[in-house]
Write a structure and sequence with these properties.
- This protein has one domain.
- Helix content is 54%, strand content 17%.
- The protein contains five helices and four strands; from the N terminus they run ααβαββααβ.
- The longest helix is centred in the first third of the chain and has 57 residues, at 23-79.
- The protein is globular and about 55 Å long.
- It starts with a helix and ends with a strand.
- The structure holds heme C.
- Residues 48, 57, 60-61, 64-65, 68-69, 85-87, 90-92, 95, 141, 143-144, 146-147, 149-151, 174, 183-184 line the site of heme C.
């Protein structure tokens, strides 16, 4: 009798394992997550470029402040993922990475240092949470020359930009970057 109970629980355990997404299923979810991250990057990049041209860098800060969270919310709604930008040196007070995101960025930075191309750096994983399983994905956000206008060495940033940042983001940590570094990640997740 005892043996039967044991083998049943062993079966239950196996069934639990089998319900984990296969490598193929994970690759398909990663493709969807990559697409959602790409949409966010493209839309925000487009609006940032237009705002820089129309309003100059200090005016563009206001556009970023207003539009970045809204674009992230729109892409989340449309894709069925939760999509956001985070950074260990965040400007947006809501941009603090959680433990998985911190580890993901550290891993991507190691791979970048080992010679991988920054544009295609990404990682994903199925993780356990208190309530079940979750698919997590991170795409690197490399620093490009245009980013330095608002995220570069403060000594080289325009006074108007610094004044606007100080007023809007008193706790800003997001300066001091150079091209080739990772500014942060696009974090994409979905409960399974
Ligand atoms: C016109 C100024 C400006 C430029 C140029 C700019 N940013 Fe930002 N960035 C901001 C502001 C303002 C925020 C905070 C608003 C937000 O995302 O909610 C921000 C936030 C971020 C965040 C979210 C995490 C955090 O720190 O809060 C990331 C990631 C980021 N920027 C990356 C970039 C990258 C990569 C570039 C270059 C492609 C760039 N930014 C160019 C102004 C700028």
């Amino acid at each position: 009798m005892k043996a039967t109970v044991l083998s049943l629980s062993a079966l239950a355990l196996l069934a639990g394992c089998a319900s984990s997404p296969s490598a193929e299923q994970q690759a398909a979810m990663a493709a969807d997550a990559r697409k959602a991250a790409g949409t966010l990057i493209q839309q925000l990049g487009g609006e940032l470029k237009a705002a820089l041209a129309e309003k100059g860098p200090d005016g563009a800060i206001g556009v970023c402040k207003l539009r970045a969270p809204r674009i992230a919310a729109d892409v989340s709604r449309q894709s069925g993922f939760t999509v956001k930008r985070v950074s260990p040196k965040n400007r947006n007070p809501a941009g603090v990475p959680d433990a998985w995101e911190t580890q993901a960025q550290a891993t991507l930075e190691t791979r970048l240092a080992a010679g991988e191309k920054p544009e295609t750096l990404e990682t994903w994983q199925v993780v356990r949470t208190a309530t079940g399983k979750q698919f997590r994905y991170a795409k690197a956000l490399p620093v490009q020359p245009v980013c330095l206008t608002c995220h570069g060495d403060p000594a080289k940033m325009a006074d108007g930009v610094k004044a606007r940042l100080a007023a809007d983001y008193p706790l800003d940590k997001a300066t001091g970057y150079a091209p080739g570094m990772l500014r942060g990640i696009v974090s994409v997740k979905r409960d399974l």
